[in-house]
Amino acid sequence: MCSVVRAAFLCSQFSRKATSLFSPHLRKMVHYQTEPRGRANSPDYRIYFRSSDGACISPFHDIPLYAADQQEGDVPPKKIKTNEILFNMVVEVPRWSNAKMEIATKEPLNPIKQDVKKGKLRYVANIFPHKGYIWNYGALPQTWEDPSHTDEETKCCGDNDPIDVCEIGSKVCATGQVIQVKVLGILALIDEGETDWKVIAINIEDPDASSLNSIEDVRKIKPGHLEATVDWFKKYKVPDGKPENRFAFNGQFKDKDFAIEVIKATHIFWKALVMRKKMKGEEIICQNSSLCDSPFRCSDAEARAVLQAAAEYGEPLPVSSEVDKWHFVTK
Predict the structure, then answer these.
(1) CB 116 within 8 A of CB 194
(2) Rounded Cα gap, residues 175 and 188, in angstroms
């Protein structure tokens, strides 16, 4: 079913040649390039994405969910089983950092931006003993937690975002980096009455990737990591005056097979999202460069216009020393 959906829906990814000039600040990755606009640590900062040939793309809609949908010739590391399902992950927040960076689902081409609340940039607090985010945090592209769907297991609706990923490898990634991950399990956070799934995954380039194949392997090889994850999600909003978060399944992690089924379901919800005839009001922006049958597919010129309209890249602004403050939350 899953391969049929992908084959029927996705056209040949990013086959066009680039016709625009590259920014001197453009950062290259294996298949994608990022182009920052605005000034880091300011509300106008954005990280836009290009395909390897320079076409402007959406990290939400144009990057394939499944790593097998990449360009021909991609071969996973020898330490990864050939029948392993691998996923692309868009890194939003590097480990140990505090800025709450996220895919801007309601902006054209969905760049990564820093979340703003009540006019202020959002940073997660350092809740002792955790410094910032304790994993590389990001999202799986081409997934969507449908807010109109009530999950049978959690009895709550989706949170209207791509599904979140906690990558537990040893490398600190960069915002906007696209990595291939192996799914190990999943945690069901209930955030203000909404289901907010947290996929636990490992970068396939990590030294421990071959040894980590299940959530139980994480308990054995990285003792305390799963407990720290639950503790982090439970308390991270407390410094903002909010109560501790709660979880479905009594805070227990579900296994790999369960996680993959959840991911497949969110991929189907996403497919329905980008195939709608039109958008209403302030709904998610589905503008994309590569989905053949989507009514929101745009031309190269239209996509380039989005970047051209963005703020010019500038030097980062200083960050308040308050970000480094430690918080102690008692049980």
Answers:
(1) no
(2) 24
